[in-house]
Automatic annotation (TrEMBL):
Record bears the keyword Phosphoprotein: no
GO molecular function: zinc ion binding
Protein name as it appears in the record: Zinc finger PHD-type domain-containing protein
SUPFAM superfamilies: FYVE/PHD zinc finger (SSF57903)
Domain Zinc finger PHD-type residue range list: 5-55
Keyword Zinc on entry: yes
InterPro entries: Zinc_finger_PHD-type_CS, Znf_FYVE_PHD, Znf_PHD
Organism listed in the record: Rhipicephalus microplus
Highest taxon, organism lineage: Eukaryota
Gene3D superfamilies assigned: 3.90.980.20
Keywords carried by this UniProt record: Metal-binding, Zinc, Zinc-finger
C-alpha cells in the first residue's frame, strides 16, 4: 500500500498537481479530496492536508494556507489562461479579468477575510511593481497598458515560496 497514493489508489504521482498528506506523506489528487472546502481552481495546492487515514477521527482535514497577493494573482492568471477566458494573445486586463476573477473567487482565496475596497489597487501594485520573472506586461506585444500574463504558464506552488531560494527572493 505504501506505493499507492490518493483515495483512488494510483501509483502515478505528479507532485506538481497533487497535495501531500502532512502525516503519511502520500499524494492526493485535489479532485479526489472529500473535504467540502476544497478548491475548484486548477493548480490550487495552497492547503495543508491530513488524509482520513491519518486523522485521529478518520475525517480528512483540509486547511487553507494563507496566500500572499502574488500567489493569488499567479493562480488567477493561470486559471484565466487554462479556462479559455478571452483575453488578447494570452494577456488579460488587470481590472476586467484579473480583479473580476479574484472578486468572484474571494472566498476560495481568503475564506472569511473581509473584502477591502482597495484590493484592486493592491492587484495593480503587485503587477506593476511585481517581478518580471513572474509577470509580463502586454505593453511590448499589444501596445496597451493594463494587460498581463504569467512569464511561465504554470500554477504557483507553495514550495516556490519557501526557503532562501524562493521566487520572491529572486525578484
Amino acid at each position: 500500500m505504501d506505493s499507492l497514493h490518493c483515495y483512488c489508489s494510483t501509483a502515478d504521482v505528479d507532485t506538481t498537481h497533487m497535495l501531500r498528506c502532512t502525516k503519511c506523506k502520500l499524494y492526493f489528487h485535489p479532485g479526489c479530496l472529500k473535504s467540502s472546502n476544497r478548491s475548484t481552481l486548477v493548480g490550487d495546492l495552497f492547503f495543508k492536508l491530513t488524509c482520513d487515514r491519518c486523522s485521529p477521527d478518520n475525517v480528512e482535514v483540509l486547511e487553507r494556507l494563507k496566500m500572499q497577493w502574488i500567489q493569488v494573482i499567479m493562480l488567477t492568471l493561470y486559471n484565466l489562461h487554462v479556462s479559455g477566458t478571452s483575453g488578447k494573445l494570452g494577456y488579460f486586463r488587470w481590472r476586467e479579468h484579473i480583479c473580476s476573477f479574484i472578486d468572484k473567487h474571494w472566498t476560495t482565496f481568503f475564506g472569511d477575510r473581509k473584502r477591502t475596497a482597495t484590493f484592486r489597487g493592491t492587484v495593480a501594485g503587485v503587477l506593476s511593481s511585481g517581478c518580471p520573472l513572474l509577470f509580463q506586461s502586454g505593453w511590448s506585444k499589444l501596445g496597451e497598458n493594463g494587460w498581463w500574463t504569467l512569464t511561465t504558464m504554470k500554477p504557483p506552488s507553495p514550495a516556490d515560496f519557501e526557503g532562501p531560494t524562493t521566487l520572491l527572493a529572486m525578484c
